[in-house]
Amino acid sequence: MSTSETTTEGHEDHEDHEHPSDQKYMQIALLLAVITAAEVATYFVHIGAALIPTLMVMMVVKFFIVAAWFMHLRFDSKMFTRFFVAGIVLAISVYFIFLTVFEFWTKG
Amino acid sequence: MSEETTTGLSHNKLAMWVFLGSECLLFGALISTYLLYRNKFYDGPAPGDIFDIPFTSVSSFVLLMSSLTMVLALSALQKGDIRNNRLWLLTTALLGAVFIGGQVYEFTTFIREGLGYTTSPFSSAFFTLTGFHGVHVSLGIVMLMSLLISSYRGKLTEKNTETVEIIGLYWHFVDVVWIIIFTVIYLVPNPTS
Predict the structure, then answer these.
(1) With contacts defined as CB-CB under 8 Å, which chain A residues touch B125?
(2) DSSP output for A49-82
(3) Is residue B28 assigned to a domain?
Protein backbone atom coordinates (compact mmCIF):
# COMPACT_ATOMS: atom_id res chain seq x y z
CA MET A 1 0.00 0.00 0.00
CA SER A 2 1.42 3.35 -0.92
CA THR A 3 1.60 5.99 1.75
CA SER A 4 -0.45 8.35 -0.42
CA GLU A 5 -3.43 6.00 -0.08
CA THR A 6 -3.32 5.95 3.67
CA THR A 7 -4.94 8.21 6.18
CA THR A 8 -4.30 9.36 9.70
CA GLU A 9 -7.99 9.23 10.59
CA GLY A 10 -9.03 6.81 13.26
CA HIS A 11 -5.60 6.61 14.88
CA GLU A 12 -5.54 7.34 18.57
CA ASP A 13 -1.76 7.86 18.39
CA HIS A 14 -1.28 10.97 16.34
CA GLU A 15 1.44 13.58 16.65
CA ASP A 16 -0.56 16.74 17.20
CA HIS A 17 0.58 17.94 20.60
CA GLU A 18 1.43 21.06 22.52
CA HIS A 19 4.96 21.31 23.82
CA PRO A 20 5.64 22.95 27.22
CA SER A 21 6.44 26.65 27.53
CA ASP A 22 10.03 27.94 27.81
CA GLN A 23 9.35 28.76 31.46
CA LYS A 24 8.33 25.15 32.09
CA TYR A 25 11.52 23.91 30.38
CA MET A 26 13.57 26.14 32.70
CA GLN A 27 11.75 24.79 35.76
CA ILE A 28 12.52 21.24 34.59
CA ALA A 29 16.20 22.16 34.07
CA LEU A 30 16.32 23.67 37.57
CA LEU A 31 14.89 20.46 39.02
CA LEU A 32 17.50 18.42 37.10
CA ALA A 33 20.26 20.71 38.42
CA VAL A 34 19.03 20.25 42.01
CA ILE A 35 18.97 16.44 41.64
CA THR A 36 22.48 16.52 40.12
CA ALA A 37 23.70 18.63 43.05
CA ALA A 38 22.18 16.08 45.45
CA GLU A 39 23.93 13.26 43.55
CA VAL A 40 27.29 15.01 43.76
CA ALA A 41 26.69 15.75 47.47
CA THR A 42 26.61 11.98 48.16
CA TYR A 43 30.31 11.92 47.18
CA PHE A 44 31.15 14.27 50.05
CA VAL A 45 28.50 13.29 52.63
CA HIS A 46 28.57 9.65 53.76
CA ILE A 47 25.10 8.09 53.91
CA GLY A 48 26.21 4.49 54.39
CA ALA A 49 24.21 1.62 52.94
CA ALA A 50 21.61 4.00 51.49
CA LEU A 51 24.16 5.41 49.02
CA ILE A 52 23.69 3.08 46.04
CA PRO A 53 19.85 2.86 46.23
CA THR A 54 19.69 6.67 46.59
CA LEU A 55 21.97 7.20 43.58
CA MET A 56 19.96 4.72 41.48
CA VAL A 57 16.66 6.42 42.33
CA MET A 58 18.05 9.87 41.45
CA MET A 59 19.53 8.52 38.19
CA VAL A 60 16.22 6.94 37.14
CA VAL A 61 14.26 10.09 38.06
CA LYS A 62 16.62 12.27 35.96
CA PHE A 63 16.43 9.81 33.06
CA PHE A 64 12.62 9.85 33.04
CA ILE A 65 12.38 13.62 33.43
CA VAL A 66 14.61 14.19 30.37
CA ALA A 67 12.78 11.50 28.34
CA ALA A 68 9.30 12.71 29.32
CA TRP A 69 9.77 16.48 29.09
CA PHE A 70 12.77 17.29 26.89
CA MET A 71 12.26 14.34 24.50
CA HIS A 72 8.49 15.02 24.62
CA LEU A 73 7.48 11.40 25.27
CA ARG A 74 4.87 12.75 27.69
CA PHE A 75 3.20 14.64 24.85
CA ASP A 76 4.01 12.55 21.75
CA SER A 77 2.49 9.38 20.37
CA LYS A 78 2.70 6.36 22.67
CA MET A 79 4.18 4.45 19.74
CA PHE A 80 7.50 6.33 20.23
CA THR A 81 7.49 5.46 23.94
CA ARG A 82 6.88 1.78 23.11
CA PHE A 83 9.87 1.59 20.75
CA PHE A 84 12.18 3.34 23.22
CA VAL A 85 10.98 1.35 26.24
CA ALA A 86 11.32 -1.87 24.21
CA GLY A 87 15.01 -1.04 23.66
CA ILE A 88 15.54 -0.22 27.34
CA VAL A 89 13.75 -3.37 28.59
CA LEU A 90 15.62 -5.57 26.11
CA ALA A 91 18.97 -4.02 27.10
CA ILE A 92 18.28 -4.37 30.86
CA SER A 93 17.14 -8.00 30.42
CA VAL A 94 20.04 -9.06 28.20
CA TYR A 95 22.73 -7.41 30.32
CA PHE A 96 21.19 -8.53 33.62
CA ILE A 97 21.53 -12.12 32.35
CA PHE A 98 25.03 -11.32 31.02
CA LEU A 99 26.18 -9.98 34.41
CA THR A 100 24.55 -12.92 36.22
CA VAL A 101 26.35 -15.44 33.99
CA PHE A 102 29.67 -13.75 34.83
CA GLU A 103 28.80 -13.82 38.58
CA PHE A 104 28.89 -10.03 38.86
CA TRP A 105 26.21 -9.92 41.57
CA THR A 106 28.02 -12.40 43.82
CA LYS A 107 31.72 -11.73 43.12
CA GLY A 108 31.59 -8.10 41.95
CA MET B 1 3.83 19.80 4.67
CA SER B 2 4.07 16.46 6.49
CA GLU B 3 3.42 13.26 4.54
CA GLU B 4 0.58 10.93 5.45
CA THR B 5 1.70 7.52 6.69
CA THR B 6 0.01 4.27 7.69
CA THR B 7 0.67 4.96 11.37
CA GLY B 8 -0.11 8.65 11.23
CA LEU B 9 3.42 9.22 12.56
CA SER B 10 6.46 10.74 10.90
CA HIS B 11 8.67 7.98 9.48
CA ASN B 12 11.80 10.02 10.20
CA LYS B 13 10.89 10.53 13.84
CA LEU B 14 9.88 6.91 14.26
CA ALA B 15 13.19 5.84 12.70
CA MET B 16 15.08 8.00 15.20
CA TRP B 17 13.20 6.41 18.12
CA VAL B 18 13.91 2.91 16.78
CA PHE B 19 17.58 3.90 16.39
CA LEU B 20 17.67 5.23 19.97
CA GLY B 21 16.07 1.99 21.20
CA SER B 22 18.89 0.06 19.49
CA GLU B 23 21.48 2.41 20.99
CA CYS B 24 20.30 1.27 24.45
CA LEU B 25 21.75 -2.14 23.59
CA LEU B 26 25.08 -0.66 22.49
CA PHE B 27 25.55 1.38 25.65
CA GLY B 28 24.14 -1.47 27.77
CA ALA B 29 26.94 -3.69 26.43
CA LEU B 30 29.63 -1.09 27.11
CA ILE B 31 28.38 -0.30 30.65
CA SER B 32 28.04 -4.01 31.55
CA THR B 33 31.55 -4.71 30.28
CA TYR B 34 32.90 -1.84 32.36
CA LEU B 35 31.13 -3.18 35.48
CA LEU B 36 32.70 -6.59 34.94
CA TYR B 37 36.20 -5.16 34.55
CA ARG B 38 36.25 -2.24 36.99
CA ASN B 39 38.03 -4.31 39.65
CA LYS B 40 40.65 -5.63 37.21
CA PHE B 41 43.19 -2.79 37.26
CA TYR B 42 46.21 -4.99 38.16
CA ASP B 43 49.31 -2.80 38.68
CA GLY B 44 47.76 0.24 36.97
CA PRO B 45 45.80 3.05 38.60
CA ALA B 46 42.46 2.04 40.16
CA PRO B 47 39.25 3.93 39.32
CA GLY B 48 38.88 5.19 42.90
CA ASP B 49 42.41 6.67 42.78
CA ILE B 50 42.14 8.42 39.45
CA PHE B 51 38.58 9.76 38.99
CA ASP B 52 38.17 13.48 39.66
CA ILE B 53 34.52 13.67 40.76
CA PRO B 54 34.27 17.50 41.17
CA PHE B 55 35.66 18.00 37.64
CA THR B 56 33.36 15.37 36.07
CA SER B 57 30.40 16.84 37.99
CA VAL B 58 30.93 20.19 36.26
CA SER B 59 31.15 18.44 32.84
CA SER B 60 27.95 16.53 33.62
CA PHE B 61 26.17 19.73 34.59
CA VAL B 62 27.28 21.38 31.34
CA LEU B 63 25.90 18.49 29.26
CA LEU B 64 22.66 18.48 31.25
CA MET B 65 22.15 22.19 30.61
CA SER B 66 22.79 21.66 26.89
CA SER B 67 19.54 19.67 26.86
CA LEU B 68 17.76 22.80 28.09
CA THR B 69 19.30 24.96 25.35
CA MET B 70 18.37 22.30 22.77
CA VAL B 71 14.65 22.40 23.68
CA LEU B 72 14.80 26.20 23.73
CA ALA B 73 16.21 26.09 20.16
CA LEU B 74 13.28 23.92 19.07
CA SER B 75 10.77 26.08 20.92
CA ALA B 76 12.16 29.24 19.26
CA LEU B 77 11.87 27.71 15.77
CA GLN B 78 8.30 26.57 16.47
CA LYS B 79 7.49 30.21 17.22
CA GLY B 80 9.23 31.34 14.04
CA ASP B 81 11.96 33.07 16.06
CA ILE B 82 14.94 32.32 13.77
CA ARG B 83 17.37 34.58 15.68
CA ASN B 84 16.86 32.80 19.02
CA ASN B 85 16.82 29.43 17.28
CA ARG B 86 20.33 30.13 15.97
CA LEU B 87 21.46 31.46 19.34
CA TRP B 88 20.29 28.34 21.23
CA LEU B 89 21.63 25.95 18.58
CA LEU B 90 25.03 27.62 18.82
CA THR B 91 24.89 27.58 22.64
CA THR B 92 24.05 23.86 22.62
CA ALA B 93 26.96 23.12 20.28
CA LEU B 94 29.31 25.19 22.46
CA LEU B 95 28.18 23.42 25.66
CA GLY B 96 28.77 20.10 23.87
CA ALA B 97 32.24 21.31 22.86
CA VAL B 98 32.97 22.27 26.49
CA PHE B 99 31.97 18.74 27.56
CA ILE B 100 34.24 17.21 24.89
CA GLY B 101 37.06 19.55 25.95
CA GLY B 102 36.63 18.29 29.51
CA GLN B 103 36.77 14.71 28.31
CA VAL B 104 39.96 15.34 26.33
CA TYR B 105 41.50 16.96 29.42
CA GLU B 106 40.39 14.01 31.59
CA PHE B 107 41.81 11.44 29.13
CA THR B 108 45.17 13.22 28.81
CA THR B 109 45.42 13.55 32.60
CA PHE B 110 44.74 9.83 33.02
CA ILE B 111 47.33 8.91 30.39
CA ARG B 112 49.92 11.16 32.12
CA GLU B 113 49.12 9.37 35.38
CA GLY B 114 49.82 5.99 33.77
CA LEU B 115 46.35 4.87 32.69
CA GLY B 116 46.69 4.02 28.97
CA TYR B 117 44.13 2.23 26.80
CA THR B 118 45.86 -1.14 27.25
CA THR B 119 47.08 -0.69 30.84
CA SER B 120 44.40 -2.98 32.28
CA PRO B 121 40.96 -4.45 31.47
CA PHE B 122 39.52 -1.59 33.58
CA SER B 123 41.24 1.09 31.49
CA SER B 124 40.21 -0.52 28.16
CA ALA B 125 36.58 -0.78 29.28
CA PHE B 126 36.60 2.78 30.68
CA PHE B 127 38.13 4.44 27.59
CA THR B 128 35.90 2.41 25.23
CA LEU B 129 32.70 3.36 27.08
CA THR B 130 33.44 7.05 27.62
CA GLY B 131 35.14 7.31 24.21
CA PHE B 132 32.05 5.94 22.44
CA HIS B 133 29.92 8.44 24.33
CA GLY B 134 32.33 11.24 23.37
CA VAL B 135 32.06 10.25 19.69
CA HIS B 136 28.27 10.44 19.99
CA VAL B 137 28.50 13.95 21.49
CA SER B 138 30.93 14.99 18.72
CA LEU B 139 28.54 13.71 16.03
CA GLY B 140 25.77 15.66 17.75
CA ILE B 141 27.89 18.84 17.57
CA VAL B 142 28.43 18.24 13.82
CA MET B 143 24.65 17.86 13.34
CA LEU B 144 23.97 21.04 15.33
CA MET B 145 26.49 22.98 13.25
CA SER B 146 24.84 21.60 10.08
CA LEU B 147 21.50 22.94 11.34
CA LEU B 148 23.11 26.31 12.00
CA ILE B 149 24.59 26.44 8.48
CA SER B 150 21.19 25.46 7.02
CA SER B 151 19.61 28.26 9.04
CA TYR B 152 22.05 30.86 7.70
CA ARG B 153 21.33 29.59 4.16
CA GLY B 154 17.64 30.21 4.80
CA LYS B 155 16.74 26.51 4.70
CA LEU B 156 15.71 26.16 8.35
CA THR B 157 12.33 27.74 9.03
CA GLU B 158 9.29 26.90 11.15
CA LYS B 159 8.30 24.51 8.32
CA ASN B 160 11.21 22.20 9.22
CA THR B 161 10.85 22.04 12.99
CA GLU B 162 10.78 18.24 12.76
CA THR B 163 14.43 18.19 11.62
CA VAL B 164 15.46 20.14 14.73
CA GLU B 165 13.23 17.93 16.89
CA ILE B 166 14.82 14.72 15.54
CA ILE B 167 18.38 15.98 16.06
CA GLY B 168 17.22 17.17 19.49
CA LEU B 169 16.06 13.63 20.32
CA TYR B 170 19.55 12.34 19.50
CA TRP B 171 21.11 15.08 21.65
CA HIS B 172 18.86 14.36 24.64
CA PHE B 173 19.59 10.65 24.31
CA VAL B 174 23.32 11.35 24.54
CA ASP B 175 22.50 13.33 27.68
CA VAL B 176 20.46 10.53 29.31
CA VAL B 177 23.24 8.04 28.55
CA TRP B 178 25.65 10.34 30.39
CA ILE B 179 23.21 10.54 33.33
CA ILE B 180 23.66 6.76 33.66
CA ILE B 181 27.44 6.78 33.04
CA PHE B 182 27.99 9.58 35.57
CA THR B 183 26.15 7.67 38.30
CA VAL B 184 27.22 4.09 37.58
CA ILE B 185 30.84 4.73 36.61
CA TYR B 186 31.81 7.78 38.64
CA LEU B 187 29.52 8.21 41.67
CA VAL B 188 29.01 4.61 42.78
CA PRO B 189 31.98 3.97 45.12
CA ASN B 190 34.94 2.69 43.11
CA PRO B 191 37.71 0.30 44.14
CA THR B 192 41.07 1.79 45.16
CA SER B 193 44.51 0.19 44.96
Answers:
(1) none
(2) GGHHHHHHHHHHHHHHHIIIIIS-TTTS-HHHHH
(3) yes
Burial (CB < 10 A; 0-12, 13-18, 19+), residue B34, is: buried
E strand or H helix at A7, and its extent? none
Residues of chain B numbered 142-181 and touching chain A (CB < 8 Å)? 165, 168-169, 172-173, 175-176, 179-180
ipTM over 0.90: yes
Chain B positions touching A19 (Cβ under 8 A) are 71, 74-75, 78
Query: Would B131 be classed as within a structural domain?
Result: yes
Q: Which of A16-20, B9-13, B51-55, B182-186 has the lowest mean pLDDT?
A: A16-20
Structural domain of residue B65, as residue ranges?
11-38+52-187
Inter-residue contact A91 to B33 (CB < 8 Å): no
Is pTM, for the whole model, over 0.95? no
For residue B193, is it within any domain? Answer: no
CATH classification at residue B100: 1.20.120.80
Q: pLDDT tens digit string along A86-95? A: 999 999 999 9
